[in-house]
């Protein structure tokens, strides 16, 4: 719009200047015609007047020249040198007046143009100030996001170091597990050699096999967790690389924007000459502002995503550390059991030679003579054990098979509180295998034995403790 107004003003100025020049040329031509006029020829005077009137009509203006007409009328009679000089002075005065009008017109046009340029300069200055303020706000936001990114970047190496440390611990535990596996294989071979001495050691081998299966499953689970953690680490590394590249790109564009700002500030000193260039750069600056705003939003979203992933990685690290702790505890327990296996095998071998029978991590001994309940317990204690405690249906079935239909004392009584049955280790009875109608709590029947009945499972019966019966001892190994 400012360019069109400027062209209109210049065009009108050139039109006025051309009309003025034509007017002056016509006047001088008329004066030359009068200067060559013959006073004796009236026809030529009339022709000259017609030429002047025709030239005045060709100007198409409402401008009259009474002095010129008056002078032409007087020249019909007087053609003295003074009259010619006076005519020239008048023509010069007319030219001077026209020049004054032209100068006034030019000053008016220049004043209008100056006001228009000043308004445009103020408008551009306001736009530049607003864009500078927005640029400073975006630069502040960019600085804050860069600081948050640096914090997340600092947290990321720490988590990576912890993950590597856990990985190293996991590798060591795996090596130790393999060593334990090798030792376990050797012990399995030794157990197979001892199996010729007792058929009950096969059950323990099956139990150890079950433990090995569980350990293998836990190892596979840890391997899966490690694979998932490695994949998430690679994903986090990729996101970090992209974020670094976008940060560098944003830094480069910020530097360019600063350079353009300085260049724009220098060029604003010559507003009229660089108005079009400044307006173009203002448009480019607005576009770059929108682009910077969009990238700032994207950077904030990526920052939130990176922070979420960092939180997830920390949670998984804690979970892996917990699993590592459990695995370490199981390893220590297994290692302790392995170290204790020679002693246990030695005791087991000696016990088997002494008449003990192995079942489910315990040794059982059945007497070959009769004693009351208290003496039976004393005999078990001398042997490093106590009267048998039955905790499961499998153990009940085993004892029924071992006693071969004989009545034997077990380690259950209500001697302390009538009706409250407790085992010899002080624990209360939870699951019992009583014969139907038992215990009947008659008299001093405070001790329990396996009775002779058709039911091979539910055959417990309360007896007087002073009855002499066989007894069964139990020793845990």
In a few lines, what is going on in this structure?
This protein has eight helices and eight strands. With 477 residues, it is of the alpha+beta class. Helix 4 runs antiparallel to helix 5 (201-267).
Description of the molecule:
The chain has helices at residues 2-35, 42-59, 66-74, 81-194, 201-267, 275-353, 373-382, 393-403, and strands spanning 357-359, 362-366, 386-387, 408-413, 422-423, 447-450, 460-463, 470-476. It is an alpha+beta fold. Strands 1, 2, 3, 4, 5, 6, 7 and 8 form an 8-stranded mixed beta sheet that branches.
List the helices and strands and how they pair.
Blueprint: H1 2-35, H2 42-59, H3 66-74, H4 81-194, H5 201-267, H6 275-353, E1 357-359, E2 362-366, H7 373-382, E3 386-387, H8 393-403, E4 408-413, E5 422-423, E6 447-450, E7 460-463, E8 470-476
Parallel strand pairs: 4-8
Antiparallel strand pairs: 1-2, 2-8, 3-8, 4-5, 4-6, 6-7
Low-confidence stretches: 1-6, 13-17, 33-45, 58-64
- Look at the structure and name the CATH superfamily of the largest domain: Arfaptin homology (AH) domain/BAR domain
SSE ordering: HHHHHHEEHEHEEEEE
| CATH topology type of the largest domain | Substrate Binding Domain Of Dnak, Chain:A, Domain 2
Question: What keyword list fits this structure?
Answer:
3 domains; 477 residues; disordered N terminus; rod-shaped; alpha+beta; Substrate Binding Domain Of Dnak, Chain:A, Domain 2; Mannose-Binding Protein A, Chain A; eight-stranded mixed beta sheet
């Amino acid at each position: 719009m400012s360019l069109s107004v400027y062209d209109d003003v210049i065009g009108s100025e050139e039109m006025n200047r051309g009309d003025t020049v034509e007017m002056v040329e016509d006047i001088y031509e008329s004066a030359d015609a009068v200067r060559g006029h013959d006073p004796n020829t009236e026809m030529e005077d009339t022709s000259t007047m017609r030429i002047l009137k025709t030239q005045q009509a060709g100007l198409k203006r409402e401008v009259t020249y009474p002095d010129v007409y008056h002078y032409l009328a007087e020249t019909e009679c007087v053609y003295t040198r003074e009259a010619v000089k006076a005519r020239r002075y008048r023509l010069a005065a007319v030219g001077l007046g026209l020049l004054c009008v032209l100068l006034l017109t030019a000053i008016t046009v220049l004043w209008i143009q100056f006001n228009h340029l000043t308004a445009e300069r103020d408008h551009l200055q306001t736009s530049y100030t607003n864009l500078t303020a927005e640029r400073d706000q975006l630069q502040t936001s960019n600085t804050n996001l860069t600081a948050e990114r640096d914090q997340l970047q600092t947290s990321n190496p720490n988590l990576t170091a912890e993950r590597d440390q856990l990985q190293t611990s996991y590798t060591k535990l795996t090596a130790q597990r393999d060593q334990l596996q090798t030792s376990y294989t050797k012990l399995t071979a030794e157990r197979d050699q001892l199996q010729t001495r007792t058929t009950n050691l096969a059950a323990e081998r099956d139990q150890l096999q079950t433990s090995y299966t569980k350990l293998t499953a836990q190892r596979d689970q840890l391997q899966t967790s490690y694979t998932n953690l490695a994949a998430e680490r690679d994903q986090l590394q990729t996101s970090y690389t992209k974020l670094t590249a976008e940060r560098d790109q944003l830094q480069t564009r910020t530097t360019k924007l600063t350079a353009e700002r300085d260049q724009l500030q220098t060029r604003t000193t010559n507003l009229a000459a660089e108005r079009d260039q400044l307006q173009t750069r203002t448009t480019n600056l607005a576009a770059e502002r929108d682009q910077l705003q969009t990238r700032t939003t994207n950077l904030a979203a990526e920052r939130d995503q990176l922070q979420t992933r960092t939180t997830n990685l920390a949670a998984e690290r804690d979970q892996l550390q917990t699993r590592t702790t459990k695995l370490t505890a199981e390893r220590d327990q297994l290692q302790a059991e392995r170290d204790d296996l020679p002693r246990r095998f030695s005791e087991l071998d000696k016990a088997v030679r002494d008449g003990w029978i192995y079942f489910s991590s315990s040794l059982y001994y059945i007497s070959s003579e009769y004693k009351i309940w208290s003496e039976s317990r004393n005999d078990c204690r001398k042997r490093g054990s106590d009267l048998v405690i039955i905790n499961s249906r499998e153990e009940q079935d085993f004892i029924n098979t071992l006693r071969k239909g004989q009545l034997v004392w077990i380690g259950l009584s209500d001697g302390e509180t009538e009706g409250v049955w407790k085992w010899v280790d002080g624990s209360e009875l939870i699951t019992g295998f009583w014969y139907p109608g038992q215990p009947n709590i008659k008299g001093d029947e405070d001790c329990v034995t396996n009775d002779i009945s058709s039911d091979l499972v539910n055959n417990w019966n309360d007896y007087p403790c002073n009855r002499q019966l066989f007894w069964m001892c139990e020793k845990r190994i």
